[in-house]
Amino acid sequence: FQTPTMAAAAASQPALTACGSVWFQREISLNAQRRGCHVVTKEIQESLPELAKIKIGVCHLHLKHTSASISINESWDSDVRVDMEGLLNTIAPESRRWKHSCEGPDDMPAHAKAALIGTDVSIPITNGQLNLGTWQCIWLCEHRNRAGSRKIVATLQGAPADEKEAE
Fold first, then answer.
1. pLDDT tens-digit map of 15-63
2. Are 130 and 113 in contact (CB under 8 A)?
3. What is the pTM of this model?
4. Integer Cα distance of 92 and 49 in angstroms
5. For residues 32 and 67, is the Cβ–Cβ distance under 8 A?
6. Helix runs in 37-146, H state only
7. Where are the extended beta strands (E) located within 16-161?
8. Contact 114, 69 (CB under 8 A)
């Protein structure tokens, strides 16, 4: 079932087509961040020169940690990141009596926050670029008070921009 609005929207965007398939995978090391939500879109894009080789595809990002998370969220107003950190601290406060406390008072709340937000995102690739919305960016949500660098496995899959790549 399509409403007239849905049909008009579908008709206004021509479908891209491509043939073949390529895969790329790379591990990205992000610099250590203070606790909070941080925009890392540019750092990730600059670490993935292979994006330019894909016409249509998907970029899957997997954060290899249990006390940080990754999300697609607001890029325009930095207050959103501050408010999100406040909300997460309300949901999983350090002051709660957690059973798991051997790694410090911020560790178990960090695990809870990472479980809520997640450690994986998938982003469409269109004509060699991450196809994010106007006000969207990639956040690294650091949930520990003193964390080290964070590692992300980026897997790119799609139809090649140059069809010779598929051969």
1. 777 788 999 999 999 999 999 999 999 999 999 999 999 999 999 999 9
2. no
3. 0.87
4. 38
5. no
6. 41-46, 79-91, 107-117
7. 22-30, 36-39, 54-63, 68-74, 120-126, 129-130, 136-142, 150-160
8. yes
